[in-house]
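User: Can you recover a sequence for this backbone? Please restate the input before giving your answer.

Assistant: Of course. Working from this structure:
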């Protein structure tokens, strides 16, 4: 198994065919990284790759709103979710936008000097807590699809990465050195600053539907709808009682990181599938070899594992999206957004 992945061994990107290969080609062109680890690790379940890529591309890369602000939002979400790999990646991508001072302030644990960026960072961190990041948003209404799509994309990607990708972005943690992360960012600067055409990823999706109202008819909507329908297919790996437990737990989740003791997750010997799904939703960085081994059966391939993790990850995304949903936030708050 490649040392950069945990619990699963995806095929080498050079072996990719069909839509997975098309995603890698788009990523090389529009993201500057031809084989991004979050999408490579999803390739064990290839039907997940295009929707996950589409949501990130159509929001962060091609959606409304400036790239620097959306990178700040992605950084804040990744920080809130304790995804070290993604925090480091977005520090380098902020260097790629040309805002080197901002990138280094965040790398040092400082707040942005620009008040607008500080508000976006605070808002993005709070999106992990259902109901804590409602309107007014720290960006114009016209940019809602870009910013909400970005934070939701990274609530999903953070969980996939924390569960299935090694923490180190570069060998020997080289990205921890300022010259390395600055140089890496500069190598991506031409791609990051080049405008991307909205909607280019949609031909990779299968009849996804228009998506939620907050996407306002932009390509972010179909991308979100496609990821929702595909990721939730993983529920079929659980029986009805385990599915109900996941739903009930997510409705009650208050955004906190679960305590280490006592262990609040189902016993791996009794309900290993529910445990894995809930770990993926609430604390994916805590998934262990023992958790995966307890669930594995001869019929449980890497395809199944990736789908189960994606199901848990999207259960958390759905909880966050319900609380962030712009029309619902302007109306009377729904009981499903309350914490317990």
């Amino acid at each position: 198994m490649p040392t950069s992945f945990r619990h699963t061994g995806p095929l080498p990107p050079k072996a990719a065919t069909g839509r997975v290969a098309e995603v890698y080609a788009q990523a090389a062109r529009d993201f500057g990284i031809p084989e991004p680890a979050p999408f490579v690790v999803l390739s064990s379940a290839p039907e997940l790759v295009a929707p996950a890529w589409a949501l990130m591309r159509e929001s962060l890369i091609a959606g409304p709103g400036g790239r620097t602000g959306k990178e700040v939002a992605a950084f804040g979400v990744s920080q809130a979710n304790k995804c070290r790999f993604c925090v480091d990646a977005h520090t380098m991508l902020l260097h790629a936008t040309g805002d080197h001072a901002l990138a280094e302030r965040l790398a040092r644990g400082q707040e942005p000097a620009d008040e607008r960026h500080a508000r976006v960072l605070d808002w993005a961190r709070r999106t992990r807590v259902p109901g804590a990041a409602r309107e007014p948003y720290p960006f114009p209404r016209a940019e809602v699809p870009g910013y909400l799509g970005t934070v939701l994309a990274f609530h999903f990607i953070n969980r996939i990465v924390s569960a299935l990708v090694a923490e180190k972005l570069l060998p020997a943690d080289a990205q921890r050195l300022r010259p390395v992360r600055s140089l890496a960012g500069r190598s991506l600067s031409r791609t990051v600053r080049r405008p991307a055409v909205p909607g280019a990823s949609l031909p990779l999706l299968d009849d996804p539907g228009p998506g939620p109202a907050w996407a306002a008819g932009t390509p972010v909507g179909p991308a979100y709808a496609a990821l929702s329908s595909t990721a939730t297919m993983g529920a079929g790996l659980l029986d009805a009682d385990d599915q109900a437990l996941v739903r009930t737990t997510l409705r009650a989740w208050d955004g906190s990181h679960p305590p280490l003791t006592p262990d609040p997750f189902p016993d791996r010997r009794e309900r290993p599938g529910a445990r894995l799904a809930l770990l993926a939703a609430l604390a994916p960085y805590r998934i262990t070899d023992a958790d995966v081994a307890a669930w594995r059966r001869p019929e449980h391939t890497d395809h199944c594992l990736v789908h189960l993790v994606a199901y848990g990850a999207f259960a958390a995304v759905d909880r966050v999206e319900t609380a962030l949903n712009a029309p619902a936030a302007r109306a009377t708050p729904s009981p499903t957004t309350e914490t317990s």
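That completes the design. Residues 302-324 form the longest helix (23 residues).
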